[in-house]
Design brief:
4-stranded mixed sheet, 9 strands, 165 residues, alpha/beta
Length: 165
């Protein structure tokens, strides 16, 4: 049996300068649209590292300042485009997913990040996690999310914008 998930995670709102937001549909729950999410791999893993790792795993977008780590420059964004919004949500873990956590763990703390990407950046989904993706204006994206905390984070986007380059 794999180790239990750590009940501390990130939510990364990926957006363009035009305020379009990337949503991805879960494999295990058709119709469940969300931003990139994922738990820490280790208790001492920095949240920014969790965010970079999850973005890469779920979308193929590489957050790095080093050209050598990305197969092409087209799917790479610089580290300073990833921002910790210093928002966190504590919520009840959906019962359908509680088996992934240690017995008795029912709540998760989620830390919100934003990632500014160029329009048209290639997206390559992890097929075991997500089936489809779409870019939507941020208000529509918030309406489409199944998770209230994800929807609220997306609605906060205008407050946390990075300047366009």
């Amino acid at each position: 049996m794999p180790p239990y998930k750590i009940p501390e995670s990130v939510l990364v709102v990926i957006y363009t300068a035009e305020l379009d937001v990337l949503l991805i549909e879960r494999v295990d729950k058709a119709g469940y649209w969300q931003s990139v999410t994922g738990s820490k791999d280790a208790p001492d893993e920095p949240l920014s590292e969790t965010a970079r790792r999850e973005v890469g795993e779920e979308t193929g977008i590489i957050v790095s300042d080093e050209m050598s780590v990305a197969p092409t420059a087209g799917n790479r964004v610089p580290c300073d485009h990833l921002r910790d919004w210093r928002l966190s949500n504590v919520y009840d873990i959906y019962p359908v997913w509680r088996h992934r956590y240690a017995p008795g763990v029912t709540r998760n703390t989620e830390h919100v990040f934003g990632l500014l990407v160029p329009r048209g950046i290639p997206v390559t989904l992890a097929p075991r996690e997500h089936t489809r993706y779409q870019w939507l204006p941020y208000r529509e994206a918030a309406d489409r999310c199944f998770s209230p905390s994800n929807a609220e984070a997306i609605l906060q986007l205008p407050r946390y914008l990075l300047p366009a380059e």
